[in-house]
Amino acid sequence: MRKPETIETLYLDFDGFFASVMQQAMPHLRGKPVGVIPFDTASAQYTTVIACSKEAKARGVQNVMRVPEARAICPDIVLVMQRPDLFRWAHGALLNEISCEIPIETVKSIDELCCTLTKSDIGDPQGLARRLKSFIAENIGPHITCSIGYAANRLLAKMACKMDKPNGVTIWRPEDMPRPLQDLPLTEVPGIGGRMEKRLAAAGVNQMEGLLDLQPKQARALWGNVTGERLWYALHGYALKAEPTGRGMYGHGRVLPPEWRNLDKAYDCARLLLIKAARRMRRDRFYTNRLWVWLDLRKGAWVQCRDIPSAHDDKAILSALDILWEKARDDLARHKIEIVRVGVTLSDLTPANARKRDLFHADDEDRQKWERLTADMDGLNRKFGKRVLSLGPLTPPPGGYAGGKIAYTRIPSAEDFW
Ligand SMILES: [Mg+2]
């Protein structure tokens, strides 16, 4: 395995992305403690702050905190409804600025990305960071800032990036390693969470030094798979090729506003989310073999799945939803339940070119007809740039943006907002 002798990777993370985009776009929010919430302010007391500005953070508010709690800590917090369309626009504009200066290798999430350095950038990383920051400030706006980390590989660059937030630049040169790591808690390593920390402690590894002193084979044994060994090599500054990650599933979830927390309304929402997930799946040329429905209740959850033989048309997928929903009614209707969040996932994917015809569900004519119809509807919706056709009525929940919701790890594309 190769061990680089210079820095090779840049990792960039925008600071408090959602709140700073809102502050950039809406001047009256600047300098104020801002909390971004998923619904309009009328039902705010029942919901959660999903992101907050640095001013709110300084007052003790955290991302993902119930609104009453945030208000107790910071009575003058300004609550604003999320604007996924704005976040997506900012994401695109920022990427554009950065790629004018250096090619982007991987977009890791809506607010994180990494690049491989060129020879001249390796010679002047501070200069590159200065240029990137000034382009963003001048061409997008000074209220959106980023932190940058440089190191021999992506994992170390990502860790370096967190060292000097907000608006920092941290360079971990191979010759200086592993000193900057030594005082960090183990949970600062991406991939080590609370559970792994406990497992390591049980094996006598309580600090970074202990982790670094392991043999690669021991790390592998502790993790129970090759992840531990890869992590060990990455922490020691080796250049690792990223594991190919195949597409696992397509899904959407949505927290329901208070007046939508019943089986009928939750069904409307599930149907809408599923149509969007299926469309994304078709766009990437996959077929699904299983549908999952997740209902988070005030207490507990209801999760069920149903096999669908290698399908991608709305008719087949929505029929599976109806069958699952009947089960949900049987199980839940007589109880006084509140459905807080609904989620749908299409899993067990098959690429379109490797589709196995199911022995018991031969591709009959009816099925082929629905597939053609679905393809035509997709084509028309794409042509008009909005949803002009759907199978049955679509009832979006208040607040809009179903399926266009921003997740840190998924950047919605324009059509997710239709
Ligand atoms: Mg960030």
TrEMBL record:
Domain UmuC, residue spans: 9-193
GO cellular component, one term: cytosol
GO MF assignments: damaged DNA binding; DNA-directed DNA polymerase activity
Pfam families membership: IMS, IMS_C, IMS_HHH
Enzyme Commission number, as recorded: 2.7.7.7
InterPro entries: DNA/RNA_pol_sf, DNA_pol_Y-fam_little_finger, DNA_polymerase-Y, PolY_HhH_motif, Rev_trsase/Diguanyl_cyclase, UmuC
Known catalytic reactions: DNA(n) + a 2'-deoxyribonucleoside 5'-triphosphate = DNA(n+1) + diphosphate
Cited Gene3D superfamilies: 3.30.70.270, 3.40.1170.60, 5' to 3' exonuclease, C-terminal subdomain
Protein name, as recorded: DNA-directed DNA polymerase
Species this protein is from: Parvularcula bermudensis (strain ATCC BAA-594 / HTCC2503 / KCTC 12087)
